[in-house]
Each structure stands twice: as structure tokens, then as C-alpha cells.
Amino acid sequence: MLVYLTLAAGMLLAWLPLFGRSLPFSDDFDFMSVISEGGIPGYLRWLGFFRPLGQYLPVWLFLENRGFHPILVLSTHLISGILLFHVCRSLYGGIRLPVAVALVFLMFPFGYEAMVWIANYSYVLAPMFLLANLLLLLEHTKRNWPASVTFCLSAGLALLTSLSHEILFFATVFSGLFACIDARTGRFRSLKSIRGGWWLPFAPIVGCGLWAVAYYSVVGQSRPKRITGLHLQTIVSVSFRQYSLTDIFHPWFSAVTRPLAFSAWSVATWIACACLISLLLAGLIMLSGIPAPQDGRRGTGFHALVATLALWFGASLIFAFGGGYSLDSRKKYPLLPLLLLIACWFCRALRNKLPVSPGAFWAVGSVVCCSAAMSSWLIVGIWKYESARYNALADFIVKHKLRGHVLVRWKPDLNVAWPQMARTVGYRFDDPAALNLAVEYRGGSDVNVTSSAQATAIRYDPAPCRWFFAK
Known about the structure:
Layout: H1 2-15, H2 27-47, H3 52-64, H4 68-92, H5 96-107, H6 112-116, H7 122-138, H8 147-164, H9 169-174, E1 181-182, E2 187-188, H10 203-217, H11 234-240, H12 267-288, H13 302-321, H14 336-353, H15 358-399, E3 404-409, H16 414-417, H17 421-425, H18 432-441, E4 447-449, E5 456-461, E6 466-469
Parallel strand pairs: 3-4, 3-5
Antiparallel strand pairs: 1-2, 5-6
Helix pairs in contact: 1-4, 1-5, 1-12, 1-15, 2-3, 2-18, 3-4, 4-5, 4-7, 5-14, 5-15, 7-8, 8-10, 11-13, 12-15, 13-14, 15-18
């Protein structure tokens, strides 16, 4: 219970500013139109079995109440963090290291776009089912469930993973390797010695196969064709391009973006923040005092690393079939648990040789957690500020019946203050493809955002927080 309270306090502290009314952006408007008019049948006619769980559910809840989305995404995020803790503990033992890994996942905004953008909830949901499957396969020997029940549960979780998002399809296929791992030694056991039967490692493949059959059987009008040609170099570039994880720290270097970390905070937010900080630090203090035998050491087991690297390979392989890997942060979210599991293996190997004292665990953990929380506050503040300006821009265009070429002058221009922002989102907030979705949803005509001096110029004035025609 102490672990769960600590993880919950850390997660809520980091993402506290996310609570409140969410604002739609870009693709959200397409989903809102289809779901509000046609419901589930309309979605299936449009996209078939392309991410029905991960995209239909959050948009439908958003249409019911704009405050539901943060609750949904943070609840799923917390469950994934708890599952990651248990997977790490099952593989490498102890408490402090699994808690540290889970807190890094829960508190840092490396994959923030998946959490703040409504339709991108699919990137948050899929890892939860994959982690649940890994835990089931790792600990199936501890349960007295019939082999058929374990097999069906694993296949069902694999199916739910693919129904949420296809990004972890191949990783799920390879996840059956974890049924072959002896958690005590971290080494592979023979298929004959698997308690659930030699067929248990193939359960995830069955679940993924069921989704593939459904996906290619029910053809939606706009279902994406996922195979666009092989891009084998992507398998390597996914690992190399994780350098872009540092993009989230760059806004701290700009005097324009820094104030947005606390711009919309109320007195209640500050009080909640103080309470959560106290709970988190108290939890870290108590966890740091756990006796060494309870936090004991365990052999790292090279085979556990091999199985985890297979998951990473599978998560990278999907991009070889899907047009390549881009650096928008939503695609980093499903990769984070796998990256942290790999890091956990190396940390355990190092810690077996260089044990960490309780004082060092508390001091380092407190600094890292506070840094993570502040980074999340800043990123969420930037997103809320910019998405509000984006929706206000669409309202202005529709109100004044603008069409044709438009020159948009942002003041302040966050793309200048934070040059990596467009990279983490995938495009600018005034990109015509994204802006016109909001305009069309409101009944307006398409515009073409340009830098031409002949275009109709509009500017944002931060004092009254409104858009005006530029003189």
C-alpha cells in the first residue's frame, strides 16, 4: 500500500495542472464529428478496427463531459506505472529500484502529447495492456489458474493491446518470451517446464492474429494502409532518435515559456501541490528505510535482458512497416516502459556491485521527482496555453468568415521560444491541416496559412488574450 500511495502521489503531483476542461486539437474534430453523428457503427464504417478502444472511448467521454479526459488518461497512466513496478520487481526483485523506475515513467513528460491530446489516448492505453500481459506471463507459475484460463487471458490482453493501438503489435507478439523466463534466475526455462503448457508463449500471437483478421476483414472508408513500404533503417533509427527525449527540458531555457508553468494555477492547485509533495517525500523516506534483506539483491539474468530487447525490437519493427519513425512525443510514450525495463537491468547489475544507501536513495529520488514534476507543469502549461490560442484562432476565422490566404502572427511565438515544440507535436498549431479541421468543424471555410504580405493578416494580443486583424 505504501508503494501505491507513493506512486499515486508522484503521478498526481506531476500532472496536477492537467485536471480541468480539455480542449480539442486537430484530429479530435474529425473524431468528434463521426462519433457524435454515428456512434460505434459510424466509427467502424469510417475506420473499421483501427484503434477503436484507444480513440473512440476518450472522444466519446469528451463529448459527454470535457472534464472526463484528464481523469481517464491519468487513471490509465497510474495503472501502467503500478504494473511497471510489479514487472520490474518480478524480474529484478527489491522495492527501491522498481519504485524509482515507475516514478520516472509516471512523472516525466517524455510522452506528454499522448496524455494531453484527446485522440492520442490510444498511445496511453496500449502499454497498460502489454504490461498487464507481461506480468501475467511472468507470474503465471504463482497462480493456480487452469492453463486454459491463463492462455485465454494472455490472448485477450494481446487483443486489447492491438485494439487500442497497433504500435505495440510486434512487441506483443514477442511478449510470449516472458512466459519462458524463470523470475528467480532471470533465465529461460524449457517449453516443457512451463506450468501453463508449452503453448502458453504463443497466446499473445493468437490475440494479435485475431485483431489482424478483424482489421483486414472490416474495411473502413478511411482505414489507414499501414504497410507503406519497408524502411528497415527505421529499426535502428528508433533507438538513435531517443536523443529527442531531451526536448521537454528546452522550454526552461526561454524566458517566454518559463512563466507558463504556473500561469493558470489557483489557490486550490497550490494547496493540493503542497499536500502531494508532503505525501511523496514521506513515502520516499519510508521506502528508503526498508531493511536490506527486503530490498534484497537478485541476479540480473541475461535472458531477461534478451527478452526485453526483443520487445524493443518489436516496438521498433512496427515503424519499418508504417512509414518510418517521427519524433512527435506521443510515439515515445509506448516505448518508455520498454526503455525503462532495459535500463532497470543495467541498474540492477550495477547496484549489485555498488549498493545505494537509504540516504542517497531519498536525496536523489526527491530531487529527480521534483525536477520531473516541474517539467510536467511547464509542458502542460504550454500545451494548455497554445491549444487555447489555437481554438480561439479557429473561432476568429469562422466569426469573420475568412478564407484563402491568411498570415498568422503569434505573440508570443512559442515556436521561436521553444524551437523543438513543433517536433514534439508533429507540426505547428497553425499548420493548415490541423487548423482547418477546427475551422471546418465550426462550419467555416478552409484557409491557407502563409507568410505572404498579400494575405489577410491577423495577430494575437496577449494583453486581452484575443485575436485581431493586424494593421
